[in-house]
Amino acid sequence: MQRWLTVFLFLMLLVGNATNASARSLHYGAVDATEVQKCDELQWRGALAEANNCYTALLSKQSSLAIQAEAAWALGDKQAASRLFDSASKQNQTDLEKSRVLSRWGDLFTATYQFQEALDLYVEASELSTDNQHALLGLALVLHESSNPDAGEQLSNLAENSSHDGVKLKALVTLASIQISANRVDEARELLERAERIADRESYPVIEVYATLAAHAIRDRSDPTPFVEKALAINPSYGDAYAIPAYVYMITFKYDQVGEFYQKAVDVQPDHYFAHLQLGANHLRQNRSSLAREHFSIAFEGDSFNPEAVNSMRLMDTYDSFDVLNFNAPESKSSIPDLSLRLDKKERDLLAPYVSELALDAINEFEERYQFKLKETAHIEVYPNHDDFIVRAIGMPGVPLLGVAFGYLVAMDSPSAKKGGDYHWGTTLWHEVAHIFTIKASQHNVPRWFSEGVSVYEEWQTGPLALESGYARVPLNVYKSLEEHEFLPIADLDNGFSRPQYNNQVIVSYNQAGLICEFVAQQFGFEALVKILQSYSDNLSTVEAIQSVLDLDPEKFDHQFQSYFYEKYGDNLANLGDWISYMQAASAARQDENWQEVITQTDKAIALMPNYSDPDSPYLLKAYAYEKLEDTDKRFETLETFWQRGGYSPTPLKDLANHFVSNQLESKAIAVLNDINLVNPYDLDVHLQLGDLLLEQQDAQQALTEYKVAMALDPLDKADVFYRMGAANKALGNTDDARQHALAALEIAPHFRPAQKLLMETISQ
Amino acid sequence: MRYSLRSVLSNSIVALILACISISGNAKSSVVIVQGLAGEDYYQRHFDEQVEKISEASAKLVEEGDLIVLSPEVAKDEILATLKRVLENSASNDMVFLYLIGHGSYDGRNYKFNISGADFTGAELLELYASAESTAVLINTSSSSGGLLKLFEEAELDNLHLVTATKSGAERTATRFGRHLADALLASEADIDKNQSISLQEAFDFAVRETQGFFDTEGLLATENARLQIGAQSAAPGQIRLANLVARPSVSANQELANLYQQRDELDRQIDTLRLRRINMSDEDYLQQFQGLMIELSLLQGQIDDEEGAQ
């Protein structure tokens, strides 16, 4: 179930801040002191030296405390500004005046990422005076920053009803940004036109409107340059002219353009620390860690309030504990590596064999299926610390994410980052490698739903847990959600990832996308899926791609997909209630230790969904009941079915492997043990048992790999592992290596008889 | 895979030399096992199993009369008196092992082991070792057993090794360490140097690894962290044998086998000596000589196997 959580990356990207929050940004009339406005006018036109002189003059004691606070903030001294706002708020004044001071103080807290403090001040300010519309705006913007679903409604209310044009303008621009993120270009355009008219009429700065129009142009697949130039014509130092549209490139995976635009942002405005931070993150996405460190460092020095900057610097410090290993596919003739792994030194020897083999298999599979050959090395980073991985992915910890792909670079949680034994890291890796293909084959034009859809579909069709039937492993909670909610139309499916309207919608969208890919492949042939991917490289939209490849308009497509889904999976949906009842009855029978009843009830559940083999599957409960009844044959028959249907819980699978060994079914035991490694590669017994079986089956090379991994686990009994490595080397004809390993074992345990014998055999050869 | 055989060899030298030196053949070993109150069936079952395993392992190490098991009903005075008597009757080259299997408590100042009637305290226990001449090992597997560590440090008991299941008295949760330590005494997996016996160090390492493995597997924060404190004048923990996995065959009726054992002991000494000289040798010389000795040992072991097989 956890593997679905990869989707959250996109959610977070969309709600992230696209602007330079740390700076003293355009306030659209929140400050009414004409002295400050005069300085602001200079600042916003890029006359920086004059603006600085102007603000410096306002620091004089003759100015009011609120004006001094604005000046200190504009000159970069945020702590002094905060103290001054604090003092200003305590002076004798009208409620409206005090409210304005508080809301500007709140703006300062917003600019320093202290959202709760900002929120408290906005609330206090708005309670003091309902005339202070900027307090309500600040409140709505903080809610927007925090992804609060009420933000949109509050912003809309201000855009429509505010009596203050500046507030209305900012609300319109922010709403337009939201619509751009959601790919609703027509709605965004209309909002921006309204904003531009207000700015012209009321003489507010229009540069942010132009920058947002540039973002809109990118989303609308047209040239943003005219709008960028308009903004820069007004203020040549306005970094947001590039940074705001850069964000759209980021959420559409166009990392070359992201880098180009953020670089231009810092070129025109060297103190645009948010752009430095994003530029650093983008360099990291493109595996340029030195450049990333450089920009993170500038961002941190200039804006140490930003937790993303702090986290990114900490992440860079952890890079010293990683090693880079390069690999080529066995038949590769490439002069550059096909694959590069960045692994923590402590896990390097343990994970490298499995990650490299699976990743190279995936690359080979997808190159063939999607008729696209990777042109660069695929980089895969595996993080043993989940928080490091999350910071690497989105800059901030606390998100339940498992893997991300940025073009040729994949980052993911190591199996050691997850406790509990149900993290199938092999599937996560397979999923993320599929993203490399959809992103690169489409030249970074793939919409989110299609990239996720292909990755999910490939999990079901070709991944480590794929069944021959290609059974779609749709989680039960998706069926549960579909009892109350409908699938989104294909034209709107991206919003299921970025703007979910109910709790489980991201997961539902993920599965809907996978099912749509399955539908296309089954109804129109797999090549249709490939053609859709290729059509994205021609910059077609989803609607255009569907029309062009399948000759269907989106409404007909949606209709046919729904028919397909309900025909194929409708029974699962209809039977879900019964399935749950049977499992509840089985669970109750277990409590009563009524094992025969457990079997009866789990059998009923299995009959309804025989392919459901997640860790809460009825198979495991049924096998447990047979264990209690001491019916070994039935127990292992059940566990074998569980395994064949893609069950991957390590503990029962270990029992199954032992059962196979006991019954001389070594090949099956090897297959089961290999599967366990894709969930839990930290079990010493599994590696030793697998190595021994492989050695018996004359696969000494693979056996040696397993023994090496066993040694990487730092076993207590190293003599034993050295001996086994020696035996594998001997079987491979590496007599000298065998002798050295025998000696290594004997150094620890001189009386270790098998090692003594191995030594003698290697010497006599 | 990245490891260096050379570093493996050099890193293991000290521990292995110590592990291979055996306690004098004339020394006597005594074992006292004190089982505390369990409180509930679950712990009763586990404590019984631990005592059984430790008894079984110790029986292969000591003479019949030197293994004493005190059940949960035995009162404090009798426990302390028994231990006192065993310590007083032991000579300087003898070994005395005390196992405490049960629950402990710690009130911030005093550690107590839970038994019927009044509990005995850590201070009362350690006081008994003050005048002991023998080398002693105290293995306390109870909760809060780490409460003994400070007392141990203050008491300066140079002849005593102390093992506790917890790092402090504040680790109050019922422990798992004891069951793994008991397992170690019978487990060939714990016999790292493959000499068919389990040293104090091997048992401790095995139990620590298994305990940690439990918490890792369950995804739980470890509620116990075992400690091994070494008495300044005592033999190293690798030297101290807690259990024999197999009984050594009698050689009284087979002079040939006795001679072979003698030759093997001599070879063991040569191997130990070579290891001690290792630091002043080149890797090449060392490995060449080590291999030579191992070939001799392998051939000799082959003869021993044949002779033992013929018995």
Structural account:
The complex is a heterodimer of chains A (765) and B (311). Chain A is mostly helical. Chain A is built from 38 helices and 5 strands. Chain A has a 5-stranded mixed sheet with strand order 1-2-3-5-4. In chain A, strand 4 (403-406) and strand 5 (409-413) form a beta hairpin. In chain A, helix 17 runs antiparallel to helix 18 (307-318), helix 21 crosses helix 22 (448-461) and helix 26 crosses helix 27 (542-550). The longest helix of chain A has 38 residues, at 554-591. The two termini of chain A are 53 Å apart. Chain B has helices spanning 5-20, 41-59, 76-88, 122-127, 149-155, 177-184, 200-218, 255-277, 283-310, and strands at residues 29-35, 67-70, 95-101, 104-106, 111-113, 120-121, 135-140, 160-164, 197-199, 227-229, 241-244. Chain B has a 6-stranded mixed sheet, with helices on both faces. The radius of gyration of chain B is 21 Å and the shape is globular. Mean pLDDT of chain B is 88; it is low at 1-25. Chain A binds chain B through residues 348-349, 419-421, 708, 711-712, 716-719, 722, 739-741, 743-744, 746-753, 756-757, 759-760, 763, and chain B through 1-3, 5, 8-9, 12, 16, 20, 189-190, 192-196, 205-206, 209, 217, 219, 268, 271, 287, 290-291, 294-295, 297-299, 301, 305.
